[in-house]
Design a protein that fits this description.
By secondary structure, the chain is of the alpha+beta class. The protein has a single domain, classed as Rossmann fold, CATH 3.40.50.1820. Helix content is 45%, strand content 16%. The protein has four helices and two strands; from the N terminus they run αβαβαα. The protein has a two-stranded parallel sheet with strand order 1-2. The protein is flat. The protein starts with 5 loop residues before the first helix and ends with a helix.
Length: 75
C-alpha cells in the first residue's frame, strides 16, 4: 500500500464504501482488496471496464453504488 496507509486504516471506525474500477492501473485491484481487509467496517464495490477515476469514468454506476451504500448505513 502506497504512503504506508495500511498502518492507520484500522483507526477508521465509520462505514467505508470502496468503489473501485476493475481496470485501475494507478491503484490496482489488489490494493482495494487489501484496503477492504484492513478497514474494520468496509464494503468493496467493483465497476467493470473502469480505471482509476470511477466517479468520472462511470458516474451513473458510481452514484448507484454510493446511494445503495448510503441507504444501507442510514438504517
Amino acid at each position: 500500500i502506497r504512503h504506508n496507509m495500511a498502518k492507520d486504516l484500522y483507526k477508521i471506525k465509520m462505514p467505508v464504501a470502496l468503489i473501485w474500477g476493475r481496470n485501475d492501473k494507478i491503484t490496482p485491484p489488489e490494493v482495494a482488496e487489501e484496503f477492504n481487509q484492513l478497514l474494520p467496517d468496509s464494503e468493496l464495490y467493483w465497476i467493470d471496464e473502469c480505471g482509476h477515476a470511477a466517479m468520472m469514468e462511470r458516474p451513473q454506476e458510481f452514484n448507484v453504488l454510493l446511494r445503495q451504500f448510503l441507504d444501507k448505513i442510514k438504517k
